[in-house]
Amino acid sequence: MFIFCSEIHLSLPAFSLKEKRGIVKSILGRARNRFNVSCAEVDRQDNCQVAVLGFVTVSPDKTIARNTLDRLEDWIYDGWPDVEITASHVTEL
């Protein structure tokens, strides 16, 4: 069994925490449904222009787990053109 974790740092086009919440909840909810991952906002909750999202997947195949998180990052990039991915880091636990 392989466990992979991805931490994605985003720059958001939001000017209030309410706008940020709408963007973050949309990304997290759709990611759960589309990729079957566990996810949450893990840092920088008090800043409305940045977000740090964490995603975790478990698989019996190392390649499938890693590819899932890579596809997730591409999906965020393509699905939210106004959201900039400033950093991304995938680790195996």
Automatic annotation (TrEMBL):
Pfam family, any one: DUF503
Domain of life of the organism encoding this protein: Bacteria
InterPro entries in UniProt: DUF503 (IPR007546), TT1725-like_sf (IPR036746)
PANTHER family: DUF503 DOMAIN-CONTAINING PROTEIN (PTHR36441:SF1), HYPOTHETICAL CYTOSOLIC PROTEIN (PTHR36441)
Name this protein carries in UniProt: DUF503 domain-containing protein
Organism taxonomic ancestry: Bacteria, Pseudomonadati, Thermodesulfobacteriota, Desulfuromonadia, Geobacterales
